[in-house]
Every structure is written in structure tokens, then in C-alpha cells.
Design a protein that fits this description.
This protein is α+β, with helices and mostly antiparallel strands. Helix content is 22%, strand content 28%. It has helices at residues 90-110, 117-128, 170-174, 197-203; strands at 6-17, 21-31, 37-47, 52-54, 56-58, 79-81, 85-87, 148-151, 156-159, 182-184. The strands form three sheets. The chain has a four-stranded antiparallel sheet with strand order 1-2-3-4. Strands 5-6-7 form a three-stranded antiparallel sheet. Strands 8-9-10 form a three-stranded antiparallel sheet.
């Protein structure tokens, strides 16, 4: 049996730009001959002075990224993000987990489903299956894709890439709404920040 897959770009947006840093989010839908579709969600941050591209990455000594692959069953989801965040000890990880989930819950409670069809479709599912599955130490995590992080002027975007257990809720991950990504103000992330140019620039934003 031969399957014909085609990828359709659903969005590519510049979410942050300065003389030093650029961030983009790229989302694609992969359709097959059936009704199911796959998702490609990439957040990339470019350090123009260093000429490097950054995404969420594992802490030193780890080979698998946050929340990832079938080869990794350690359930160790601590991570680094570029020259900005270092979440590589348990206390920091738990603090960040709570911070992100608090903002996720606030967004869900404030969301108005009448203003956006995707919000209406996803809101009940989002509340029923909170995104803490991406941080929890449960077997469900092995079905999940990685978190995607990128910069915005309002704060750090934490983009959830799946809404298990319902595969048909892929739209909730693929199309950005007030529910996803979760935006965490940089000032609230100061405790996790690494010293350097990224920190100085982002904390100076008003």
C-alpha cells in the first residue's frame, strides 16, 4: 500500500525581533490518504550575533530533549533554552511547572469561545486534560511530543504540541489561540534565567 503524504504550511510567524534576537514559529499539517493528519510545530530563536539557532534542549549529560522520544523512558523533563533558561535541577523544574500551569489555567478561564471557533472546539478538552501531562511523570508522556519554546514581546511562549488522549484535538496544538501557546512574562522567569545578553534584553522590555 502506498500513502501519499503532503505537508501544508499553516503558519509561519515572526514573533520577536531585535538587533540581536529573532524568534519564529512554523506550523505544518501533514495529510495522508485517510482522515488523520500529523503536525510539525517548530519554534526557533536566532542569535544573530552568535550566528546560532536555538530550541528547547536537554540539560548537560542528557541525550533526549524534553518530553521526547520512544527511546527515552527516564521521565526526566528538565531542560535548557538557548542562553536564557536553565531548568536543570528539580526545584527549578517544579517551580517552572507550577508557573506555566497557573498561566495555562488563567488563559482557559478567560477564553471566550464565541470569538474563535478553534477556542470553542478546544476549550472543554483543554480543561479536562490539563497540559500538566507534559510535566507529569506518567506513562502518558511517551505519547506526547516536545514542548516548543519561542520568544514574544509579551513573554516566553510555551507551546503544547499535542492534546492527548484525543488525536482529533490536534487542531488545538496546530492553530495558535489564546489557549496555546501559554505566554509567561519574562519578569516571572527571572529566577530561571542565565546571566547574559538574552536576560538583559528581555528583562528590559516594558
Amino acid at each position: 500500500m502506498v500513502y501519499d503524504y503532503a505537508a501544508t504550511q499553516t503558519a509561519i510567524d515572526l514573533t520577536y525581533a531585535s538587533p540581536r534576537l529573532l524568534s519564529v514559529i512554523d506550523t505544518e499539517m501533514e495529510r495522508s490518504e485517510g482522515t488523520a493528519f500529523g503536525r510539525v510545530i517548530r519554534g526557533m530563536t536566532f542569535d544573530l550575533e552568535e550566528r546560532k539557532v536555538f530550541r528547547i534542549e536537554p540539560c548537560p549529560g542528557r541525550n533526549a530533549a524534553h518530553g521526547s522520544s520512544a527511546k527515552d523512558r527516564s521521565h526526566d523533563f528538565k531542560f535548557r533554552f538557548g542562553e536564557l533558561l536553565d531548568v536543570c535541577d528539580e526545584d527549578s523544574y517544579q517551580m517552572l511547572r507550577k508557573l506555566v500551569l497557573d498561566h495555562a489555567e488563567r488563559a482557559a478561564r478567560k477564553a471566550d469561545p464565541k470569538r474563535n471557533a478553534d477556542v470553542e472546539a478546544c476549550l472543554h478538552h483543554y480543561i479536562a486534560y490539563r497540559p500538566d501531562i507534559y510535566f507529569a511523570e506518567s506513562e502518558d508522556i511517551k505519547q506526547s511530543e516536545d514542548l516548543v519554546l519561542y520568544l514574544t514581546f509579551a513573554g516566553l511562549a510555551v507551546h503544547f504540541t499535542d492534546f492527548v488522549p484525543n488525536a482529533d484535538m490536534g487542531r488545538c496544538a496546530l492553530f495558535r489561540t489564546v489557549l496555546n501557546p501559554v505566554i509567561v512574562p519574562y519578569r516571572e522567569l527571572e529566577a530561571f534565567m542565565r546571566p547574559g545578553a538574552w536576560r538583559d534584553e528581555l528583562l528590559a522590555l516594558r
